[in-house]
Amino acid sequence: MTPDKFAALADPTRLALLSALATGEKTVNELTAPFDMSQPAISRHLKILQEAGLIMRRIDGTKRPCRLAPDGLEQIEAWANMMRRTYAANYDRLDQVLANLPEGDAT
Amino acid sequence: MTPDKFAALADPTRLALLSALATGEKTVNELTAPFDMSQPAISRHLKILQEAGLIMRRIDGTKRPCRLAPDGLEQIEAWANMMRRTYAANYDRLDQVLANLPEGDAT
DNA sequence: CATTTGTATAACGAATCCTTTATATAACTA
DNA sequence: TAGTTATATAAAGGATTCGTTATACAAATG
Asked: Which candidate in B1, B14, B75, B87 is best for mutational testing of the A interface (most A CBs within 10 A)?
């Protein structure tokens, strides 16, 4: 897993753009409208999302409709799942040991 | 989903720290060793991971062993899965429409 | 053909992030 | 109790990121 995919999701505007795209395919102008931010700023965010493999675009005349890229999302899902499974495999026994320790948790 | 969790994963060192923790619980010094980076830098990264809910720490004398926080990983997994499902629900029909369009895809 | 529309790129300043060194603190150890 | 070990915090610099305005360009429109 490359950090670039997570970096693309690390910005609130980009996360909101993805949510907007979950509803359906949208052009750059349609995506810009609700954001109270300039169109070039949105275009830049979309470029970052595309380079991270999280959205795709097609050409429709002068428009560039954007859609979610399910492969990118699936990679993230698979990574988190793998980490959880590895954690579980390594910690299941340790969990019980720690649960009986008198040590307090650290914040 | 808060962007902070993704921001915590957006740094290569922090992503590697998480992978190191998948193997098992480790202290700050143990985590610092392989990274060719100062201990304060690692401590700062660990703080960011903890504040994002991706790791937990306990107190063992002067040591602060770190472990993965499965809840944080599960939230990410659930988010990606929800986005994919929403995508599928909204795009399944559109996919077929687009597949038959003469337009080329845009990169 | 001239104009407008949709989007991208460039330049630049402000804010944030990452790292280092220096130092502080708390708990072992002798 | 003095020294050492494990970790955290602070200050400061350079690099990166995010936003804006100005502008370019290609396609639609009249």
From this structure: B87
Give whole-number Cα distances, A73 to A26, A50, A53, A77, B33, in Å. 18, 12, 9, 6, 33
Residue B30: per-residue pLDDT:
98
Q: What percentage of residues in chain B have a pLDDT greater than 70?
A: 85
pLDDT value of residue B52: 98
State the Rg of chain B over Cα. 20
Q: Which residue is nearest to nucleotide D9 (CA to C1')?
A: B40
Our count of domains for chain B comes to: 1
Instruction: List pLDDT tens digits, range B24-45.
Output: 999 999 999 999 999 999 999 9
- Mark which residues 8-37 of A lie under 8 Å from B by CB: 9-12, 14-15, 18-19, 22-25
Domain-embedded: residue B105? no
